[in-house]
Amino acid sequence: MHEDPKRRRLAAMRACDRILSGERPLSMRDRLAALDVPDDLPDLYGDGPVTALEDRVAALLGTQAAVFFPTGTMAQQVALRFGADRSGGRAVALHPLSHLEQHERQAYAQLSGLRAVWPTTEPRNATGAEIRALAEPVSTVLLELPLRDAGFVLPTWDELGEAAAATRAIGARLHLDGARIWESVPHLGHGLAELAGLADSVYVSFYKTIGGISGAALAGTAELAAYARVWRHRYGGQVFQQWPAALTALAGLDRELPRIPDYVRHARTVATALATLPGARVFPEPPHTHRFRLWLPHAADALNDAALALAEEEKVWFAGGWRDAGVPGMALTEITAAEPALAWTADDVVEAGARFLGRVGPGS
Question: What family does the entry list (predicted)?
Fold first, then answer.
């Protein structure tokens, strides 16, 4: 029987003494044991800890309300459907590299009958000028902060404000795909409430960045929240109990939000050090968040094998998840400089990088 490569990789990471990219994987037992579980009754169809989480998110974002969803895909669909139902327009403006196009199987189109208009195909979010230049009316403009599949890139605060003003000028709603909005604040230089205040609705994730086990929220007006609760039920998201997801999300907000500025600052140190490795390229430089892309001139399989060997034999996790970059001879991965990376100096990164590349086979 063949060993599952994913389980082998996670086991190797869990056993490592040092981790550069990513978080140490925790078992289900570890996750639940770490929770401060109250003696109260668990949530029943969305009350209790779920309500507490919704109130916490609404307060952080400065919105009238927030609604918990089991998945971000469901929350995004509801946000776009709300705009379409209110305006009667079935077109929405989003980026071809957006999460909805790349990772949600175009659910907005397949289940809600909406149609995408692309303001730009450049590897960045649309500008105000591009939004104003749309050739047809749209009900919602969606911006992903950061745009993950372009390299976790963010606009400047002024550019974001111009995009928001342009969206209002064309009579559309602005929806922020803020799955990783938590880590966008340092680059933009404004708080969560100021950022959310530019938009009509915001989706946030609880397992990305803050370390919850699952779940998301859609935040905005009380009208949006009432609509979202109806459609959450229709989509099958009115789950009987979700207290583990809610409690880990609340714990993550307490634990991770204060640390994120340190992660973002340290990501710049890590990126600068990685850029000195032979043939390496990082993007963006400096990183906009605590995540960025790294390219190396080797085959993806050889780099993944080297990462696993370094982990299993030396208890050091460097970087995994390598894939072909679409450029001959180059492979790409995403680096996440989270809590474990804070212990790494620039010299540590360079030294471990040399040992990692020393395990890559010749001619790879």
Answer: Belongs to the threonine aldolase family.
Torsion of CA 226, 232, 233, 234, to 10 degrees: 110
Q: Is the peptide bond before 25 cis (omega within 30 degrees of 0)?
A: no
CATH number assigned to the domain comprising residue 205: 3.40.640.10
Nearest to 304, CA basis, from 4, 94, 6 = 6
Residue 338 belongs to a domain: yes
Residue 195 has pLDDT above 90, yes or no: yes
CATH of the domain at 271: 3.90.1150.10
Closest C-alpha among 341, 22, 55, 66 to residue 178: 66
Inter-CA distances, 341 with 163, 263, 265, 269, 312, Å? 34, 8, 11, 10, 19
DSSP structure class, residue 3:
P
- Condensed to tens digits (0 to 9), the pLDDT of residues 235-285 reads 999 999 999 999 999 999 999 999 999 999 999 999 999 999 999 999 999
